Amino acid sequence: MAEKLIIKGESKKERYQALLPQLESLVASETDIVANMANIAAALKEAFNFFWVGFYVVKEGMLVLAPFQGPLACTRIKFGKGVCGTAWKEARTVVVPDVEQFPGHIACNSASKSEIVVPITKTGEVVAVLDIDSDEPDAFDETDALFLEKLCQDVLPGKF
How far is C-alpha 90 from the chain's CA centre? Predict the structure, then answer.
């Protein structure tokens, strides 16, 4: 893959449709999951200008910070705690339009206003989550969920 993303389209859907094949190509020949997570986080941040994009991986019964783009983040998150821990516990995508309204939200950065967390599963178990924060309220919708789930379910699991 080229070192530069080619993102065309005005709508969110068009941008995801342009980005996903490039991400698939990017990770196709790379076997190192850390390298793949790092490049995916960078690509998502560049393509959408999200406030924070990163991964947490399940290690020793906790979510542990992995490659990310953005300001400093929480290092460890307990099972079922916050948005990330909830997505892990429930093994489902969690979209939060207003983080202040989410019970137990973990405020790693007060500038975060909305969030989406997508679990990455392998053989039926959550092995990591993709966490994306926006500094705008209500930034995430069904389009984000659809394309980020495709990324997390079809592209990444085989790399873990």
Answer: 16
User: Is residue 128 within a helix (H) or strand (E), and if so which, with residue range?
Assistant: strand 125-134
Q: Please state, in angstroms and rounded to a whole number, the distance separating the CA atoms of residues 99 and 74.
A: 15
CA distance 118 to 102: 16
Q: In the numeric block, which tokens belong to residue 98?
A: 């207003």
* Three-class HEC string of 55-123: EEEEECCEEEEEEEECCCCCCEEECCCHHHHHHHHHCCCEEECCHHHCCCCCCCCCCCCEEEEEEEEEC
φ, ψ (nearest 5 deg) of residue 115: -155, 150
Tell me how far apart the alpha carbons of residues 3 and 150 are, in angstroms, rounded to a whole number. Answer: 23
Give the model confidence (pLDDT) of 55-79 as tens digits: 999 999 999 999 999 999 999 999 9
CB 19 within 8 A of CB 5: yes
Give the closest residue to 97 by CA, choosing from 144, 65, 56, 129: 144
